[in-house]
Amino acid sequence: MTLAGRRELRRYSRHLLIPEVGLGGQEKLARARVLVVGAGGLGSPVLQYLAAAGIGTLGIVDDDVVDITNLQRQVIYAEEDVGLPKAAVAARRVRALNRDVACEIVPERFEVPNARMLVRRFDVVVDATDTFGARYLINDACRLEAKPDVYGSIFRFEGQVSTFVPGGPCYRCLFPEPPPEGSVPSCAEGGVLGVLAGMVGTWQANEALKLVLGIGEPLEGRLMLLDALESRVREIAFASDPACPLHGERPTISDVVAFARVAREPLGVPELSPDELDAYLAEHPQARVLDVREPHEAILAAPPQSLHIPASVLEARMHELDTAREYVVACRVGAKSRWAVARLRDAGFTHLCHLADGLLAYAVIHDDFDAF
After folding, report:
1. For 73, phi and psi rounded to 5 degrees?
2. What's the rounded Cα separation, in Å, for the pair 51 and 19?
3. Where is the domain boundary, 221, 237, 253?
């Protein structure tokens, strides 16, 4: 593609003034195809900055719809978009920002059947997802198709960015094993500072632009750690792992595979689904729901027959509980409560149940209950 029009030359004039970009570099951007997997907190700034920079084609992979809780950090969306498909809305915003950018919408989940096919059609892949399964899958597909993978993640005030290029260390070299299922809280449970998504996503966009232009030093073999609370940025170097199952000395992965979850330790107590809680409490009027949410998580609603002791002070206040009483241990999404059940069992409590998936799932089936 040649930027011959006066409008294009004027639009990208600030790029053209940079020696490392210039007219030739801008034409590279116009020919480039970048796949963005995830149109959420990280995908929002990535898509907008790559569109503004003049990337020729953006692939947008996301099967979700806009939720009101997204608006705190997913700045590509507005209130009127709630309930609409993210991929379609994001593409509309991209085209409004730069009509020269083509969008290829993929309103489905990035999974084993489509992973390599999608990656194969693009020059650079940006991992803007929020699950370990997606990160391993994107990493594997990119390595097998010899495409660079720009990784980012966020949680509370902390972010990570790295770039995995063909021939260099990959995500599996950095994180050989996923954590046990449920051991790492999600943003839905632990929260995230909205502006952090912009900080990390912008770094990812910068890495993608450098890769397309062939300039600078990508974050190959380097994990950048951002601490928004302390305003600190530091780096951790890592190397290719000779034992990497994907590209090590004796590789065992020759194609993309489904994410193998590391099973959680069994709780050893009965688990109630959210729709079973009301019936259980009706049959056991002396039972109590032990709500272990922290104060900032429990500001709106309390479950029926409840007693609130935050997980952070549970051990100090365990003497307030009666070992002869039945307790249904619950938190917001079911992670803190698993820890609480284990501590209570160790302390000798035997009449315990666990609310699977937490009070947020309970709220979904009870219009009059808001678990925040």
Report:
1. -140, -20
2. 21
3. 237
For residue 263, the model assigns a pLDDT of 55
CATH assignment of the domain containing 127 = 3.40.50.720
Q: Which domain holds residue 350?
A: 271-364
Q: How many CB atoms lie within 10 A of CB 214?
A: 10
62, 40 contact by CB (below 8 A): yes
How many CB atoms are closer than 10 A to CB 218? 20
Q: Model pTM?
A: 0.78
What's the pLDDT tens digit per position in 99-120?
999 999 999 999 999 999 999 9
Measured CA to CA in angstroms, residue 262 lies from 110, 115, 212 at distances of: 20, 22, 36
Distances (CA, A) of 310 to 187, 269, 278, 316: 19, 20, 22, 10
Q: Is residue 18 part of a domain?
A: no
Q: What is the CA angle 45-47-50, rounded to 5? A: 100
